[in-house]
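Q: Got a minute? One more chain.
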Amino acid sequence: MSYFIDPKTYRKYRDQVIALSQSIQINYPEHLPPEKRRPGLSDEQIAEKLGIDVFTAREVRCVAEREYYGLDEWQKALEFKEQACRGYAARGLSSVTKKYLPKRDRD
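A: Always. Here it is, folded:
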């Protein structure tokens, strides 16, 4: 399915969608008190909150993320994910929390 959003709708919702999305989260730093943490919302949750359909929310988010982040940020994210996965696979150690997690059986 192809879906293209018109520029007027994109501009209307861009800032709201990106602010609510998982692209901008303030919940990982463990030192933050719970009232200051803000997990990102799913496309479905964003759509419901803004009163738009999920396809519009998703399209706005996808375009806005590419506009918001430069290529260097995408590369850093890929490197972080690869390092985190390799560290967990080798040691069961979360690279984010530095806590050991039990390895899951792959069977």
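A: Residues 71-91 form the longest helix (21 residues).
Q: Perfect, thanks.
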